[in-house]
Structure formats: C-alpha cells, structure tokens
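Case study B.
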Amino acid sequence: MNRVILLKKRPVGKPTLHDFEFTSAAIPVPLTGHVLLKTLYVSVDPYLRGRMNDSKSYIPPFEIGKPIQSGIIATVIDSKQTEFRKGDFVSGILDWKEYQVSDGNGLTKVDPKASPLSSYLGILGMTGLTAFLGLTEIGVPEKGETLVVSGAAGAVGSVVGQIGKIMGCHVVGITGTDVKAGLLKSKFKFDHAINYKTSPDLKEAVRKSCPGGVDIYFDNVGGEISDAVLANINKYARLPVCGAISQYNDMKTPVGPRVQPILLTKSATMRGFIVSDFSAKFPAAIKQLAVWLREGKLTYVETIVEGFENIPQAFLDLFDGKNEGKMIVKI
Amino acid sequence: MNRVILLKKRPVGKPTLHDFEFTSAAIPVPLTGHVLLKTLYVSVDPYLRGRMNDSKSYIPPFEIGKPIQSGIIATVIDSKQTEFRKGDFVSGILDWKEYQVSDGNGLTKVDPKASPLSSYLGILGMTGLTAFLGLTEIGVPEKGETLVVSGAAGAVGSVVGQIGKIMGCHVVGITGTDVKAGLLKSKFKFDHAINYKTSPDLKEAVRKSCPGGVDIYFDNVGGEISDAVLANINKYARLPVCGAISQYNDMKTPVGPRVQPILLTKSATMRGFIVSDFSAKFPAAIKQLAVWLREGKLTYVETIVEGFENIPQAFLDLFDGKNEGKMIVKI
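Model:
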C-alpha cells in the first residue's frame, strides 16, 4: 500500500486535521528515465501554511485534492536511469506519499556517512541555508554588533543565533518557554534568552538584554514580539524578515504600530526574503555550514515524530511551538 | 533691529503659531575669523517637525528658548576672514535670524549667476539630493519599471518623479488636489497622477495606473496612502522611506496593517533614510542635478512666501499641503 496525504480543504485560520485527507494508491512503477523513491524523512515547516491559501505568494498554492509537498529525504528503491541508482539517498521537494516516482529533476544526492540523513532537511538543507543567507546577505553582521532573533529555538532561529556568535555578535534570542530559553543558552550559546510569554514588558526586556541597542533583528514571528524589538533598534539597523508565524493563521489583516516612522528615524532596512532569492549562493553556503558543523561550531536539535500518519499533526504542532529546533517526521 | 524666531514650547500634535516666539537682538559684530550674514531665503521643511519634539532622532532636538534652524541662503555683509568675502552668497543650516555671525563652518558658496539663489535650497540643495540619492541608492530604478511617488507635488516628490522619467520608468504620483495632479502631468511629465482625496478606492486607483505592478515606492507621507501602494508591490520591490508627513503630528503611535507579511511574500525592501546617509555622494549628485537642470530635463516649482514674520506660518502650511514644490520664505 502507498499512503498519500492530500489537501482536503483550505484552512480557515488555524489549520486542523480536518483540512487533510489520507488516501492510498498503488505503488507506481518507474518508466525509463525515472526512479522510484521511498520516503524516509518529511520536513514540516511553517511556510507551508501560506501554500494552503488560495493566494498568490512566492510559490504557487497547493491544490485541493492534490498531495501536499515539502522537503523530503528518500531512498531510491528502483531506478530506470543512471544519475540516481538503487540505494542512493536523495533530498527534494516531494509529495507527502510513502512511494513516488521522479524523473530526477530537483533531486540532490545526500550522503548519510557525512551527516545524518535528517540533517539534510535542517542544518544542511533549507533551514541552514535560510539562516545563513538571511543573516549574512541581509543582516550583514559585524563583530561586536547585537543580533536579536525571534522564534529563536526554532529550526532557523537556533542556527541564526549560532552563526551570529561565530561572527562575533552579542546574540539575544526570544522564545516561548523556559525550557527553550534554557536550551538557547546552554546548547546554542546565546548570550541572553527571553521568554516572551513570561516577560511583563518585552520592550524593556529587550532593552535590558541589549545594552548597546539592536543592530540586526532576524524576524521569524512578526506581531507584537517584533514591535518590542523595533522599539530598540539602532541607527542603520538591518531587519531580515524570514517568517511571520504569529500571523500565518490570522483571518483578518493584522494591524500594529506602523514601522515607517521608526525605519525613517533610524535609517533602518527591513527586507523580506525567501531562501531561493539567494540560490546562486547555495553551494558556498552549504560548504561553510558543513565546515562549521564538522568543527563543532554549529549544533542542532531536531524534534522527530515517527509515522507517516502523524505528518499533519506534526505540522499543526509548529503553531503551538511544540518543536525544539527542526520538526521532522520519520517514516 | 535683528529679528529672531525661537521655539517657545514643544508642539503637542499639530504645531501652531503659539509654539513660536519672536524676539529681537542687536546685530552682532563678527570677530576675527568670522563673517556677518544677512538672511535672504529660508527653507521650511516637514522634517523640522521632528526636531521640535524632545526625542532622540537622527538630529538633536531644537531647544526651547533657542532659535530654530533650517536651510538658509545668506549674503556676507562683513567678513573678518578670507574664505568668505563681503558680497559672497552662501548656503548652510543657520538660525532663523535676520542677521547672524558664523565661523564659516558648514557654509557653502553658491553662485546666483549659475542658478537662482532659492534653487540652492531646493533642486540644487537638500531637496534635490534627497530625491536623487533616495531614488538611485535605495530605489535603484531600472528602465521599464514602475515608480510610485507619494507627496508627489512636494519639493522632493516632484524631483523624484522627474528623475524616474529620465531613467525610463513609468511614473505615477499621488497628491492631494486636482491642481497638483494637473501640475504633475503637465509640468513634471508624470505618466499618471492620483488625487487621493477624491479617489474612492486608492488601492484600486494605484492598481489601475500601474498595470505592471509597483517596483519602487518612494514614500514621503506614510499612513493609508502607503497602505494602498503596498498592496500593489511586485516581487523584489524597493521602498525608500523618505518622510511620513501624515504622521508627524500624531500624538499616539500610529497603527495600520502590518507590512512584514507583504515584504515577506514579495521579497521586498523597505528602507528609511536621511539625505546625510549618502553625504559621500553629494558632490557627484549635485553635478548631475545641475546638468539635468541646464539641459532642461529637470524643472521645479517653488512656493515663495515673503517676509521674515511669515516663516512660522509657511512651516505650518506644509502640513495642510498648501505648497506646490519647495516652500521658501524670502526675507
């Protein structure tokens, strides 16, 4: 049997299990030039929420009744071509299916001897690239500057903070539980960690933990957390906008303090991005990340959920902050 | 007699004449190394409102009981130094006084034979520099792109639009009266002009006048006008934030739709600036502006008010959009 997960209907506000549909299909047979893949690890990511809406975004929306797609690590179990052979491991944006065929387009070979397979969905995949390129291309950290990261214990945030430390920044992370705050300091070596849920005055908490003001704000969450950081930015601050998880499920246009007056008085730059904006720099970035990983300068955590049937719930759990680091489903 | 205008108290909300105080002093005598200046033209600018607040901004606040300062053209009527001689014309950030002494620091000689004296406060001064450098350094216009300018009939806006045309852009201006909208098209050669006060749906009006979407939004005003433009930006849009005149007199933090989700889905860049951020590029920029002016590719309008006693009212009139182009007081 080959289980498949479809988008049943477009979520209204926060997604629920009812928005997904499980179905099954035959295991396909690869034609000439194709490979048959068996799914091993599935990445669930906040950005997928955007693709569930019927609106133009940076990538086309998922279609109702069609499989959802995300980053997947698979193994080649049958091959009718020469580039990818039986036994190879690959990563790619693939369907939420246990088995699928591919013409090889968009697949990248990954090496389980060099790094654990799941890491190619995280620190050596889109997560690591997003953190590295968003921080270095937009944040442009300089030694001695102060970097604040929101969603800091998440997959991207935890890498951003570590790279900030490697580059000599004072690094402050904002997260939503004391356990995660502890993890930021103990495992990821952030200088300070703020639990926004227990801070009576977040603006003041940011001010205290950033005595020199905020030079770079790597924004994964948006909303009121970002308002508190913006109130503390320095002249010429850079603000990469990587995500807005606090707003993805909003049903009305979110409102908040206007940012233009702050950007104006601070000559500050706020720039949204998606990792593919920097695709020309992927090979060099992956090389650098792998070096730091090997040298022990970078570390990562994963929240691994087991079972194909648990993919939708793992995705939903992202919006309740149930993951530490990268959320991955092992099949 | 030497009339002087002081900041009497910090305005609460919209400034009034009661926030200013007229006083008089003796005409000073220049010491060795100094010059005595007679004020000829005074620039009044929206950004001065920010300096009237007691808050840290890009330049220090005016002090209560001290003269207000702005861009001024003066003539040297007595000189005890060699760089600036009697009869020279100079521009600089000077006090709102009929006569004042200076050590020459910050003064620039201007040539009334090359261009009218008042133009050195506008198109060949801070106004022209702000327009040129904000547009070229942050907007980075490319031929065929669409540029939207708010506050388009103002001093900076009218120059931005013309430079956009020189650079091959489709240029749309937003302004607040039909007369100004007419001026944008007839005198400044904008492709379209929108009167936001008579547009029932500004977002739709921008959409219609920008069939290819908005690549650059040069923002002088902030607020709901900017919301309408942001709803129409293209992927990789650039948004120089030059001013926020609609918010300068707000007594509470202005709120509006959050921009981060839009910047994120469009990989767009919003950047605040003040012209001095680009001071290294002033000489080249002034040279280019002078060439365009001489070639007839650039034109400008001024609203000239006469009389030292009318400086405060001319400043207040900016917030009611009573100026077309640069607002200047002739003494």
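The radius of gyration of chain B is 20 Å. The remaining cases will be described in the next quarterly update.
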